[in-house]
Each structure stands twice: as structure tokens, then as C-alpha cells.
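Hi P.,

Sorry for the delay on this. The queue was packed all week, but I finally got your sequence through. Input first:
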Amino acid sequence: MDAFYASVEQRDQPELRGQPLAVGRAEGRGVVAAASYEARAYGVRSAMPSIVARRKCPHLVFVPPRFSVYHAVSAQIHEIFRRYTAIIQPLSLDEAYLDVTEAASKYGSATAIAEAIREDIRRETGLTASAGVSYNRFLAKLASDCRKPNGLFVITPAQGPDFVARLPVSQFHGIGPATARRMEALGIHTGNDLRQVSRDMLRAHFGKVADFYYNIARAIDDRPVDPHRVRKSIGSETTYAHDIHDLPAAEEALADVADRVWMAYMEKNLHARTVTLKIKFSDFRMITRATSLKEFVREKSVMWEAALHLLQSEAPFRMGIRLLGLTLSSFSGAEATHNPQMTLF
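Then the structure:
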């Protein structure tokens, strides 16, 4: 979906259409949950602190999130998906992979199905969606970002290898900013550069994910669309430009991480029991500390108190902190059904 939360708000509140809009809390340590395309033109992005977003766009309009509405619209969209295929892997409220291999013979092609779904979504919800169509998940994800908003892009088997070869590794789905910087330091800037690196060298530098990198450089991705994939955790982390040395500063930094985790937790309607804190020190030594609760985490204050206790138990810190992370896990079976990130088809 295109700027899903923001688009729902602009649909339901016509006076907001055409305005730079952020869904989230403007005051305090608020975080942007979603930004309209008008806001994105100013550099406003999801997960950005609200104070930074306001600095980038002084006339930004904030509206509080309405997750119950987003869940209802998401259910409506998934009903549309099921008209065309039962093989659906949800990734979040607004993203999913669909395997239409068998359905394509009925409807003519995967592209025809994508066009039909986009039209059904527009007609029945008043919202727009972008689709990527290809012969594997990796390429479909890349394609889905090529014509946003309200677009469709197809990568055929004949086009796949050349498409990947030209693409900067920083734009590969599955290669984050830190890994991209490591690759660039090794002289790997594009898919073609990555293709020239041996599997053994990739393993030496990147460990167990080396085989994935080796394959996607060749436009190979054999992962199936898995409608039964179970989510094991949800979390967020931040690496800081300057090391954190004292507890009050660490508590303030962790509060920002906790805001992002809680927002995602509420969005996906999960029920977790375990809170895990991750700390990476300036010497790159990393520790994790976890606590499992008797009841599911249903209030943000419960998660925060557990996280704060874990952090305080490590103070005073042996050296500066360069990274803080927070994760919720041990989900109940009924809710442990989604997997984060990626885009339609």
C-alpha cells in the first residue's frame, strides 16, 4: 500500500488531502508512524523523531494513529487477495507476498492479476497500491518500489540478472545500511561487483548470510511464499554517533527505541511475554539481558518498566554504549503469524 496510514487519514479527512501529513504523536518523544508523500518531499520518514520531522517541515500536520481502522482496512485488502490466491505471506498490515503461479493460468498472467488487485483495492477502499511482479521474492520486492506511488513494475526472467547487476547494493532488499557500507569498503558497489566476489570471500566477511548475497547477485532467490511463517520477535535498535556513558542519557535513548517497538507491537496486534535488551559497547562487545513476564505485555508501561530494570541492572557501564536495542518475543500462537518488512507481491 502507498503511505498506508497517512493515505487512510487523508481518505477519511478530505481537508488533509494534499497536505504534508504525519501519523504519530507530535509532542514529547513522539515518532512518525507514517508520512504522506507530500511530507516525504520534505524528507520526513517513518520512525523519524517527531521533533526532527517538524524541523524538516514546520507546517507538518500530525494526526494520532487509529490502529483499529488500519486493521479493518488491512482485513478488507486481504479479502481481495484471497479472491486470486490462497498463498499469501503477510508481512505487515500493508504489505504481503502473493504466489500466483497457479492462478496466472486462470487470469492470463501475474501482471493481469496485479492490475486486477490494484483496481479492486482502489474501487473498494479508495486507496492506491503499488505492485512488483517477478519470478522470485527478491526481485518482486525490488520491482514494487520502482513505480511508487500507484504503480506497477514487472521484472521478467530475461531481465532479472541485468536489473540486479546495475543496481547499487545499498538498494538491495536484505542489505541494510551498515552492510552496504562494509561492502563498499571492500569495493562492492553494485550487483555486478557483488557477482565478482567468490562465495568463500563472502563467507569470510559476512558469515552465514553469504550464500544469500551470492545468490541474489545472480537474481536467484528460492524462498517460497510461506503463508504459515511464524514471527518470533519484534524489535528495534539504534547505533549512536557518540557513545553514551551515563544512565540518564541511556534511559532517554532507550525511550526512543521503546517508542518504535511499541508502535510496531500495537500495529501488528501481538501478545508477547519476553522483553530483551541489547547493549553494544564501544569496544563492540555485545550483551543481551532478558526477562520473561507472567502475563502478556498489554501496556506500554509494563514493557518500559521491564526494559528500564534491565538497563539499570547494568549501570554503571563498564565503557561507553554505541548501540541500544529492545525486543519483544515469546508470542502467543494465535498472534505469531506475521513477518516484518517488504512490499506487495
